[in-house]
Write a structure and sequence with these properties.
- By secondary structure, the protein is α/β, with parallel strands linked by helices.
- 41% of the residues lie in helices and 15% in strands.
- It has a 7-stranded parallel β-sheet with strand order 3-2-1-4-5-6-7, with helices on both faces.
- Helix 1 links the parallel strand 1 and strand 2.
- The N and C termini lie far apart (34 Å).
- Bound molecules: NADP nicotinamide-adenine-dinucleotide phosphate.
């Protein structure tokens, strides 16, 4: 699939991984529908640095923890040729102890809203070529000791990716995912987690943002790949 002139909806695209994906797709000639929740100022500043600027790329805002917001977001986006479900929430929790409200919020942001976007994407009946990449986490490869609602919601989205790939392949809609290892420390844990984790990885280093973006672009471009979950994790899934 060619990326040039395609409408690409990237959720959580204002900062961090999402911003890198936005830069990579814009450089490849896409027209961005850049979603944010709180980071509107950052999203607008980012768009102004991209080729074509605000005349070519749009910023959209929605809180995906609120049921119904994903559908509103999609209808505001208009046509979408490529959907990148990147937004996510992560709170350290364990299934045994976490309050139900936290489990529900993990699922709303990391599963139900992305699923609503996937369904809205598939409901564009005039779309005869399309690609989706869901950002997951290498944690889906094993049972994390304190993965809680976060891990479980990522696994659910992994399963949905495979099921939709099978169901909607005949319409030339492809559904893939990348499962990153440590790229950036979680917000608020900037100085702790990576230092402990990186020496345990087979490659002993973090995932480069540019490698992750290249993997996402590759999955969009390659017309023969669907139902694939590509681990971009410096070998972390190997244990
Ligand atoms: N960073 C890593 O090392 C790593 C490792 C494994 C997997 N991943 C996965 O890769 C993706 C990107 O990672 P990241 O670290 O860049 O993610 P992040 O910074 O934790 O979150 C990305 C964006 O999600 C948006 N978001 C959070 N809650 C939201 C809500 N209720 N409604 C709408 N948007 C919401 C935020 O947008 P606003 O800022 O606009 O509020 C945030 O900027 C995620 O899916 C993550 O699970 C990342």
């Amino acid at each position: 699939m060619r990326i040039e002139e395609k409408f690409v909806l990237i959720t959580g695209g204002a900062r961090r991984v999402g911003a890198e994906l936005a830069r990579a797709f814009a450089a490849a000639g896409a027209r961005l529908l850049l979603h944010c929740r709180n980071s509107r100022v950052e999203a607008e500043a980012l768009v102004n640095t991209l080729p074509g600027g605000a005349a070519r790329h749009r910023v959209l805002q929605a809180d995906l923890a609120r049921p119904g917001e994903a559908l509103r977001l999609f209808s505001e986006a208009g046509r979408v040729d490529i959907l990148i479900n990147n937004a996510s929430m992560y709170r350290l929790s364990s299934l045994a102890d976490a309050p139900e409200a936290l489990d529900r919020e993990h699922f709303e942001v990391n599963f139900w809203s992305p699923l609503a976007l996937l369904k809205a994407f598939a409901a564009q009946h005039d779309l005869n070529e399309g690609a989706v990449v869901n950002l997951l986490d290498q944690e889906i490869s094993g049972i994390s000791p304190r993965g809680g609602g976060y891990s479980l919601s990522r696994r659910a989205l992994a399963e949905a990716t495979l099921e939709l790939a099978r169901e909607l392949g005949p319409r030339n809609l492809r559904f893939n995912a990348v499962a990153p290892g440590p790229v950036l420390p979680p917000v608020g844990l900037e100085h702790s987690k990576m230092k402990k984790t990186l020496p345990t990885l087979p490659l002993r280093r973090k995932v480069e943002l540019s490698d992750l973006a290249e993997a996402v672009l590759f999955l969009c471009r390659n017309d023969s790949i669907t139902g694939e979950i590509l681990r971009v994790d410096c070998g972390q899934h190997l244990g």
